[in-house]
Amino acid sequence: MNYKFSNDVTEEVITDNIKKEEVKVYDQKPTPAFIGASWVALLSGMVAFCIGLWNADMLLNEKGYYFTILLFGLFSAVSVQKNVRDKLEGLQVTEMYYGISWFAAIASIVLLIIGLWNADLELSEKGFYGMSFTLSLFSAIAVQKNTRDKKFIEDKK
Q1: Which residue, 107, 108, 44, 41, is CA-closest to 71?
Q2: CB 77 within 8 A of CB 143
């Protein structure tokens, strides 16, 4: 019977005879396929969002609002991922910056929802912007994670 207990950076596996093994959580370098897929997802989400804005029949200030929300969301998502990873690795992170990062990420999502809710757009257009925004945020986190994992493995050598 195996029991797993997790701490910040390692997992301890205790077997029946109470033997402890430490396994590093970040010892696996991301595969080139996953790195490539993350970058393709990020670029396709951002480009689709921007092409949608370029072709949209809305005022320039509305286009600027949605573009700013995209940039704000991408930055805050990467910032949250970095803070979470820093805490996981035992690096010092101020609670204020950690909280601001989470607040900014949530605020960007809420601002997009409010903007789309009140926009004079077809439901399919609203869905398009929501999905391309979500794809962009998720893939930005994946790209940041891959970059961090690669650097972590390379620094160990």
Answers
A1: 108
A2: no
